[in-house]
Amino acid sequence: QLQLVESGGGSVQPGDSLRLSCTASGFRLNYFHIAWFRQAPGKRREGVSGISIPDDKTYYADSVKGRFTISRDNAKNTVYLQVNGLKPEDTAVYYCAADFQPRFSDSVWSMDARYDYWGQGTQVTVSL
């Protein structure tokens, strides 16, 4: 069974940090482009960050540049999203997704329709 599992979310205060993890079972993440998306209540799902194969080029939404960092650990079959300087507007369910299509660029990485596999999400809540 092919599965993505996110973890690492939680309830934190503004300015805090978290490390979100996305671990795969049944397939190797190093064969896929991976992205993190988030969805806040009443809002559309949006792309947060992506990482490509084979060069691990990274992409970020403007709203998170300089605060979030995406990375891979192929030995652990895991992709991480380090989230620093959290703001209340970062509150959302965060999902990771895997994409096997050949073209992955700044213009397409955040298109959620292209992703083949999705995790169940992990909640991040930022409040005082």
Secondary structure elements and pairings:
Layout: E1 3-7, E2 10-12, E3 18-25, E4 33-39, E5 46-51, E6 58-60, E7 68-73, E8 78-83, E9 92-99, E10 117-118, E11 122-126
Parallel strand pairs: 2-11
Antiparallel strand pairs: 1-3, 3-8, 4-5, 4-9, 5-6, 7-8, 9-10, 9-11
Please give a structural write-up:
With 128 residues, this protein is an all-beta fold. 0% of the residues lie in helices and 46% in strands. Strands 2, 4, 5, 6, 9, 10 and 11 form a seven-stranded mixed sheet that branches. The protein has a four-stranded antiparallel sheet with strand order 1-3-8-7, with no helix packed on it. It is globular. The model has no long low-confidence stretch (mean pLDDT 96).
In short:
This protein has no helices and 11 strands. The chain is mainly beta and 128 residues long.
Please trace the helix and strand order, writing H or E for each element: EEEEEEEEEEE
Distance between the termini: 40 Å
- The beta-strand count equals 11
Proportion of residues in extended strands = over 45%
- Percent helix range: under 10%
**Computed structural class:** mainly beta
Q: What is the alpha-carbon Rg in Å?
A: 14 Å
Shape: globular
Biggest β-sheet description: 7 strands, mixed
Low-confidence stretches: none
| Discrete helix count | 0
**For the residues shown, what is the average pLDDT?**
96
Index terms:
128 residues, globular, mainly beta, 0% helix, seven-stranded mixed beta sheet
